[in-house]
Structures are given as C-alpha cells and as structure tokens.
Amino acid sequence: MNKLQEFIKKHPAISIVLGFQLFRLVLLPFMGLMPQDAYYHFYGENLSLSYFDHPGMIGYILRLFTEVFGKSVFVVKFADFVVTSLTLMSFYKLASYFLSNSKLQIATVLLASTLFISILSFNSTPDVPLMLFWTLSIICLYKAIFEEKKWFWIIGGITMGLAFDSKYTALLLQIGLLAFLAFSNQYRKLLLSPWLWISLIISALVTFPVWYWNYQHDFASFLFQSSSRTGDISKFKISPNYFFGAIGHQIFLLLPVLFIVFITFTFKYIRRAIVKFKLPSAKTLFLLAFFIPTFVGFFSLTPVYWVKLNWMMPSYITGVIIASMFVNKKMLRTQIIISVVIHLLLSLQILFYVVPIKSDDTWIGWKELAQETQQLQKKYPDTFVFSDDGYKTSACLNFFMDDKVYAQNIIGKHALHFDYLGDNLSTLNGKNALFIDSDKRFKNKEKRNKQEPLLSDYFSSVVELEPIIIKINDNEVRKFWVYYCENYHFKN
After folding, report:
1. CB of 468 within 8 A of CB of 482?
2. What's the pLDDT at 232?
3. DSSP letter string over 155-195?
4. pLDDT at residue 231 above 70?
5. What does the alpha-carbon distance between residue 81 and residue 4 come to, in Å, rounded to a whole number?
6. Phi, psi for 415 (deg, rounded to 5)
7. Distance in angstroms (rounded) separating the CA atoms of residues 177 and 181
8. pLDDT over 90 (residue 452)
C-alpha cells in the first residue's frame, strides 16, 4: 500500500490515466453486446477486401482477437479496449514532441478522462482502429518533417493507408499534410520533395484492397458514403436542431471544459489568421492542420446536416495537445471531477440498467432474444430467421445463434453488407420463416396487430405470434414482435 501511495504521489497524472483505464477494464465483463459489435464481428466472420458500409480494419481486428482468445462478448470488447489503450500510448508519445513535461501530463489526463475514450473502449466501430492509425500517422509525419528522418515518410504512408483502410475520413490526413506544407513558409519546399510524393503513393497503394473491392462492386461503398449525404447537404435547409445537437454531442464526448477550450482556441487562431494575417509557429500550425479540417469542417455542416457524433473524433488528437497549452490546474481539476461523476453514473447504468433505453442501440437483451428465438425454432422446426432494421437484430442474432440469420434482403430491401455475402436466396424457396421485429418504444405487451406489407408479397401466409418480452432483473425491458411466415418465394 505504501508503494502504491508513493507511486501516486510521484506520478499523479499517470495514476489518473491508469485509474480511468482500470475502471474501463473492470466494466468490460458487465457490458452486453452492442449491435455495432455484432455487425463488425460479422465483418470478421465474412472476410473480404472491403465492405459495403466501411473498410474492413475493425472486422479484421475482431477476427484476430476471436481467433486467438475465442468468440465471446468480452473478447470483442477487449479488442476495442486494447486498441484504444494503444491509441492513448501513441498520443502520449506524440504530445511529448510539443509539450513540456507538466503540459504533457495535462494533455494525457485530458484525453484519458473524455467520454469518447470510454465509448471507443466499449464499442466496436471503425473509429477504434482509425484513431490508432491516425495518431501513428501524425507521429511519423512529425518525424519526417521536423526531424528530417526520411524513412518515416514511408512508414507514414503505410499508417495513413491503414487509417483509410479503417474509415474513409482518414483522407483528411493527406489533406491536413498538404495544407500544412502549403501554409508553412519554412516547410513549403517539401511540396517538391520526392519523399512526400512517395509517402502519398505508398498510402494509396495500401488502400488498394478498398478500391479494388469497390471496383468489383460498382463503387457501391463510395457511392453509399457520398451520394446521399451530398444530396442532403445540397438542399441547404437550415436546422437549428442539427447545430445544437452537434454541440450537445461534442460536450458529451469531450466534457464541458475541454469543449469550451476547443472553441476558444479555434476562434483565436482563425481570427488571428483572418484579421491579422498571422499564422502560429510551425509546430502549432502542424497540429492545427490535423484539427481544423476535421473539427471546423464538420462543424460548419451542422446547421444544414446531421453530423454524427464520431465524425470529429480524429481532430481530438491534435486538438487536445493544443488545448493543454490553455488549460490550467483548476480547469483540469474541474474536467476530472465532471468525468468521474459521469463515469460513475455510467457504471450504475451498465451494472443495474437504471434508465430504460428506448432504442435498439443498447447492450441489453440480445442474448436473451437469441435464446427465445431458438426456443421458437424448436416449436416451428425447419424455419429460417430474418429481421428488417438495417443490421442490428440480424447481426446480434447471428452472433449468438449457430444458424444463419438473414436481413431485409429476404423481402427485397437493400440490406447493407448482407447483400454482398453471395447468398443464393432462391434456395430458401418453399421454406417457412420467423420474422423478428423490435418494438423500440415498448409501451405494452400486446401484439402489433399489423405486419410489414412486403411480408405478404414474399410468403403465402403470415401469422403474428405472441411477442417476445425480455426481462432484466425481473423488469420487462425490451419487446420484439414475431411473425410466422409460410412458403417463401424469392423474387429477382
């Protein structure tokens, strides 16, 4: 105990960071499966060069961990925790290039205390590997530019490519790099350096699997990620709810102190550049180059478009380093206190499910649903199971059940990557099915007394069964409608 107290006294910042990480690790076994966990695990079970929604890095990581440690919810969560911990360690190394020792401690505590680190540690998304390779890329580019270590141009090209293989927003790494060199008087000459272009070419080569998969599938993923969103933005319909919703999300992820500092220094540097035509030092400009395009770029869309809460996450890496230059001990203490309170409330929710979640984006009830569905299959033998909610129910049931579970492509709807598995649905002709549909709002235990209209187009008869009610701690928390569908007939 004395040695522990001595360590905490000597290394308070490291102790706080380790405390947050230990807290997260202890909570992992109590976290149920999230739909995102199940869907990206489904990626790993169906290995491909890329996937419809995103590149496949998160799927490959989950496949690696489940191959080594076995398939379980804990292993999936543990993979996220390990990768995010590596991101924290990489951030510490990156921040050490820019900050004094005291400010380095502040920066590390600021990042470790955020809710977004907890989210990445608990939930499988493409952002988990993106944040790691984003951070490693900036380390390599720093080494290549400021320390003139040319081999880091090559390593940086590889890590930038791997970041893109995690999520398409990683393209902002190359944009940030070129923007820094273009605006920096001292380093603009590097735009003509062959090492820069070798790095960019290598990054493109590493992304080849993603491009080749898209080429094979008529660029379906690129079109999915760009066309609908571009169309919505082009409508230019002002929505205050989008703007204030984005602010709420960012305050939730960063916590109020850090978010306010972000807004303050962003305004300061942009105002100085526009009004006084004065740019910061080369190192600060380097950090801003990987912050402003992502943070300010996406924030500028919020008045006309619903920007998802995770889109700005990559900007946090260099943003927190800049923020630490403006944060004093009192502000840091406030950040820690708020973070501890919120994390304790989070733990109560995870352990005791205090507040019902009226959404399918929850870790509650999926395993129990799979067990109930398997019991139904015994009562209605030789049936296949499918759902129609994008991917959530189908992915979660696939995780827990041995039999293959299908998505809404059974009734002719687009079903994300389920459409690209090579399934010959005509082999299901004549079979009976169980259709599972989540009641997100769950107000009563009654039947729905209506059905998805397309069911009758693909089945000879459809009968609604008693709904599945999921109980947690003797409380009824989730409800799923169930339909028995006879004689499937596939339509091209």
Report:
1. yes
2. 57
3. HHHHHHHHHHTT-GGGHHHHHHHHHHHHH-TTTGGGGG-HH
4. no
5. 24
6. -130, 40
7. 6
8. no
d(CA 484, CA 432): 7
Q: Are 393 and 362 in contact (CB under 8 A)?
A: no
Q: pLDDT, tens digit, for every residue of 80-137?
A: 999 999 999 999 999 999 999 999 999 999 999 999 999 999 999 999 999 999 999 9
How many CB atoms sit inside 10 A of residue 218's CB? 9
| Angle of helix 220-234 versus helix 208-216 axis, rounded to 10 | 90
Exposed/middle/buried for residue 91 (C-beta within 10 Å: 0-12, 13-18, 19+): buried
Give the global pTM: 0.96
Neighbour-count burial of 449, counting CB atoms closer than 10 A to its CB (0-12 exposed, 13-18 middle, 19+ buried): exposed
434: left (phi over 0), alpha (psi -120 to 50) or beta: beta
Which two three-digit tokens encode residue 53?
């929604």
Sign, CA dihedral 444-446-450-456, equals: positive
Nearest Cα to Cα of residue 74 among 23, 131, 25? 25
- Could you tell me which residues come within 8 angstroms of residue 217 by beta carbon, excluding any fewer than 6 positions away? 52, 420
Cβ 316 vs Cβ 289: under 8 Å: no
Contact between residue 383 and residue 431 where contact means Cβ atoms under 8 Å apart: yes
Q: What is the percentage of the chain residues whose pLDDT exceeds 90?
A: 87
Please name the helix (run of DSSP H) or strand (run of DSSP E) that holds residue 42, with its range, or none: helix 35-45
Burial 135-168 (b: 16+ CB within 10 A, else e): bbbbbbbbbbbeeeeeebbebbbbbbbbbbbbbb
**CA distances, 79 to each of 73, 121, 165, 295, 370 (Å):** 10, 8, 17, 27, 23
Whether the CB-CB separation of 383 and 434 falls below 8 Å is answered with yes
Nearest Cα to Cα of residue 97 among 348, 344, 286, 337: 286
**pLDDT of 230:** 58
Strand partners, 471: 476
Residue 406 DSSP one-character state:
E
358-383 pLDDT, tens per residue? Answer: 889 999 999 999 999 999 999 999 99
Tokens of 71: 């398939």
